[in-house]
Amino acid sequence: MYLPPRSSRAGLRTGAILVRYCPAVITRRAGRIVEEGDLKCRRRTTGVFEMWQSSFEHARQRSQARGAVKPSVDARDAAHALVAQIEGTLSLARNSQDPDTLNVGARSLRRYLESLTV
Question: Residue 60: inside a domain, yes or no?
Answer without folding.
Answer: yes
